[in-house]
Fold this sequence. Notes:
Elements: E1 5-6, H1 18-31, H2 41-60, E2 71-74, H3 77-88, E3 94-98, H4 103-115, E4 119-123, H5 133-139, E5 144-150, H6 162-172, E6 176-179, E7 198-202, E8 214-218, H7 256-271, H8 275-294, E9 299-301, E10 313-318, H9 323-334, E11 336-337, E12 339-341, H10 346-352, E13 360-364, H11 371-391
Parallel strand pairs: 1-11, 3-4, 3-5, 5-6, 6-7
Antiparallel strand pairs: 2-8, 7-8, 9-10, 10-13, 12-13
Helix pairs in contact: 1-7, 2-7, 3-4, 5-6, 8-11, 9-11
Amino acid sequence: MEDLIYLDNAATSWPKPDRVYSFVVDFIRECGVNPGRSGFDKAIEAGNLLEDLRKRLTRFFGGDEITPERLCFGYNATDALNLIIQGLLSDGDHVVTTNLEHNSVIRPINHLVRDGGVEATYVPFNGDGFVEPDEIRKAVKPNTKLVIVNHASNVIGTIQPIGEIGAICRELEIPFAVDASQSAGMVPINMTEMNVDVLAFTGHKSMMGLTGIGGLCVRKHLDIRQTRSGGTGVRSAFPYHLEEYPYRMEYGTPNTAGVASLWAGQDWMEERGGVESIYAHEIKLAQKLVDGFREIDGVIIYCCDSMENHIATLTINVDGLEAGDVGIMLDVDFDIATRTGLHCAPLVHEQLGITKIHGGVRFAVGPFNTEEHIDTAIEAVAEIAERARKMKRPTLQSSK
């Protein structure tokens, strides 16, 4: 395991910084009680960390129109996206989204289309992997009640022009939701400047936290309908779920270990010089990876003519081989961990035309990867491509 080259950071960052491990263990040992449920010192201390993290993440997401109580915690981005989609759409409404979306957006919308009388439009991306803002505008209808867009693709790594799309939504007075699963902690986000009304984030990727923690950040002018109910730890005699934030979007005991991990992750990011510094390291390695792959005969890279407006994630295929077979060879023969298949984003692969070969091979660089890791990955793919050429299988058509 010590020799493993981990290039699956788009699934979850690993390893975590040492300070995350130590802070979480110490916090749970010393203060692992239920926050906000009791008045003794340890419960107050646990609750203080939760509330302090709300304030810290509100600043992190750059919202002068966001108050800390509107930073609401949940299990992950999928959990938050379900709350957003189900809480903003009703029978007769129309939603605009894109072919870049993860199933955490596609499936909740499709369920509402099938079962809830909602209409949906999926906007395709262009040949470079970007959604054109004008195409979003063209997709809007009189009954459009939500536009929701993936900030950074978990397949091809393109960063969408969120600011331009947000300006259109603000002009048209349509709520704009952003899935920041891949971008939060990877690139700077300012909800106010980007005209984002509600942001869904997860903690276990570039924010360096544990799995099972995430949430949503809601601007002051937007209210999301409650779709769940349960315990809040306050006003227990009230017979209905509380309408004020954060309780409006939070249910039951919070993930205190996850909260602690996000706090430590914020500390680590600040020590490393902030999001921009970490991104510079990762994108430099991703560019080296792309440049190396371009020199290999038979390697197809998707939507990577330029790494401008990209995160450090890319997907390839090797001519003559299925993605799963390439992933197995990388793992078994070279101790390189990648992600193969459709990456829970089937519409991306469908538009790229690679669904029939079961998707692609995704490489996702993280902060602990090195140039030596990248050199080894390039050499490994070159050897696999050479094996494929010797097998003389039919040729795949390249897709930009």
